[in-house]
Specification:
mainly alpha, globular
């Protein structure tokens, strides 16, 4: 039985979110359309609860999910599928400062232009989510660590905003992220399949 205060839209968001991350951990291409459905559902949930950074993030996630879907389907001429790889130093050199700048910029924007009562946390989680999603479109192993960090922040944030079912979803996401990390580490040790 869903927690008190959960509505049908939040329940649908919960279900599509679990399906999305479960498929992603298994490197199943259908994670991307499930993610798009989840983003569109949660856009409404977050606008309703004043998590405007998260609401805007759903629009960006929809675009990133479309890109990830395309990129996984077209990994390159020499590969049958996109392989899991490590995040290189050159990627970290731009991704880490871009994530920090996005977190600060979002927090300032939310503080100045919205009635959000959690602008800093909303900014940090939104920036981490973007970095993690980018990493997963490229099948970068460390993207799971970013998701784990983000989930650890989101769980108490959603409890604070009285989104108990969504907090439970992020607890499930935390577990699935640990499973995804393990599965992608195993995949990293196997050679990529050639066509």
């Amino acid at each position: 039985m869903p927690p008190a205060g959960a509505n049908i839209i939040e329940i649908l968001g919960f279900l599509t979110g679990v399906i999305n991350v479960w498929l992603l951990a298994r490197q199943n291409l259908w994670n991307w359309p499930a993610g798009i459905a989840n983003n569109l559902i949660y856009l409404g949930v977050f606008v309703r609860t004043g998590l405007y950074g998260d609401a805007g993030l759903q629009i960006v996630f929809t675009a990133l999910n479309a890109y990830g879907w395309w990129h996984w389907r077209h990994p390159g001429a020499a590969l049958a599928e996109l392989p899991v790889t490590r995040t290189g130093r050159s990627t970290w050199m731009w991704l880490a400062p871009a994530t920090a700048a996005a977190a600060a910029g979002l927090a300032i924007f939310l503080f100045r232009y919205t009635d959000s009562n959690v602008p800093a946390w909303d900014g940090v989680t939104s920036a981490l989510s973007l970095a993690a999603t980018y990493g997963q479109t490229r099948k970068l192993l460390e993207s799971w660590w970013l998701w784990i960090a983000e989930d650890l922040i989101y769980i108490p944030l959603y409890l604070y905003k009285n989104l108990k079912l969504t907090a439970a979803l992020y607890l499930v996401f935390l577990t699935l992220s640990a499973i995804g990390l393990r599965e992608w580490q195993r995949s990293l040790r196997r050679p990529a399949a050639l066509p």
